[in-house]
Structure to design on (182 residues):
């Protein structure tokens, strides 16, 4: 499933080739991405359908799509953009949940791991960068497992989503904006 590189490319972490990481490093990240599938299944089992699908489920799909043949192309940017969307959605969606604090602690560890991975990649220490990238997946999925283990408020009980989903409030706001503009 992972693209085969020539022996020269495999032993050479040269960004002029298709990707900075060699095949073995890409494989490590590809296989660690399956943790998101496990936390998605656990979230579905616990009944948190929207979070399980939008957060670890979507991250799993975009990560696998990117890391099966990593290039600097649209799949990489889709993966990065989707992870940001998923993090924002999860942060808003788990407001008031039993283990919200622990979720944020482990997500902070994932973000720190991302930053360290970027630093090591810039320094061309690609194995360290790979290990820290794997740390992102490990910490983020621990956060998912933890938050899925507790109680998460239904979507209609979270204030920010209530406001966004309340049709009458939105219609009144649109009318107010129209009056201000006129």
């Amino acid at each position: 499933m992972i693209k085969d590189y020539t022996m020269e490319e495999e032993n050479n972490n040269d960004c002029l080739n298709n990707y900075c990481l060699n095949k073995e490093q890409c494989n490590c990240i590809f296989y660690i991405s399956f943790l998101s599938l496990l936390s998605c299944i656990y979230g579905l089992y616990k009944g948190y359908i929207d979070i399980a699908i939008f957060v670890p489920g979507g991250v799993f799909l975009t990560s696998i799509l990117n890391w099966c043949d990593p290039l600097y192309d649209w799949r990489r940017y889709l993966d990065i953009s989707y992870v940001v969307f998923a993090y924002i959605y999860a942060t808003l969606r788990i407001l008031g949940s039993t283990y919200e604090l622990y979720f944020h602690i482990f997500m902070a560890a994932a973000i720190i791991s991302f930053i360290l991975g970027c630093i090591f990649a810039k320094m061309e220490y690609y194995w360290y960068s790979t290990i820290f990238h794997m740390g992102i997946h490990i910490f983020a999925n621990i956060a998912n497992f933890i938050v899925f283990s507790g109680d998460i408020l239904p979507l209609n009980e979270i204030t920010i989503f209530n406001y966004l989903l309340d049709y009458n409030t939105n219609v009144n706001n649109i009318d107010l904006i129209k009056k201000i503009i006129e």
